Amino acid sequence: MKNILFFFIPALLLQGCGSGNTQSQDISDDKIARIMADLYVAEAATIGMTGYSRDSLIQVYYNQVFEMHGTNKVVYENNLRLISNDLQHLKQVVLEAQKLLEDKGGN
């Protein structure tokens, strides 16, 4: 359960930087899980950094993650918000993201 909380850190940070824009696009659960995993890696890459340099670098990483997945922060947040209305659904997506991270760690 502790690991699940780490997936919400990027989501919370992104919501704090929300633009209020309401773009609509459905993202598959698999894609959301992959984005979650990549955001987690981005967070991990900046552990130990503080202040402005960390904030700037994490935004660069987030933008790269969204670009790699062909989406943007607003669309991701909207889809994550919809999924979070069903905790079992959210749990499935988070577990998939964890599995992706475990698979990457073994390679």
Q: Alpha-carbon distance between the termini? A: 24 Å
Count of distinct structural domains: 1
Secondary-structure class: mainly alpha
- Which band does the percent of strand residues land in? under 5%
In round numbers, the mean pLDDT is 83
**Per the principal axes of the C-alpha atoms, what is the gross shape?**
globular
Number of strands: 0
In helices, the fraction of residues equals over 70%
Radius of gyration: 13 Å
Oligomer: single chain
Please work out how many helical segments DSSP would assign. 5
The poorly predicted ranges are 16-21
The major pleated sheet works out as: none
Order of helices and strands: HHHHH
What's this model, at a glance?
This protein is mainly α and 107 residues long. The protein contains 5 helices and no strands.
Which short descriptors sum up this protein?
107 residues, 5 helices, 0% strand
Task: Report on the architecture of this protein.
- By secondary structure, the protein is an all-alpha fold.
- It has one domain (26-106).
- It is built from five helices and no strands.
- Helix 2 packs antiparallel against helix 3 (51-68) and helix 2 packs across helix 5 (87-106).
- The longest helix is centred in the C-terminal third of the chain and has 20 residues, at 87-106.
- It is globular and about 35 Å long.
Indicate the topology.
Blueprint: H1 2-16, H2 29-45, H3 51-68, H4 73-83, H5 87-106
Helix pairs in contact: 1-2, 2-3, 2-5
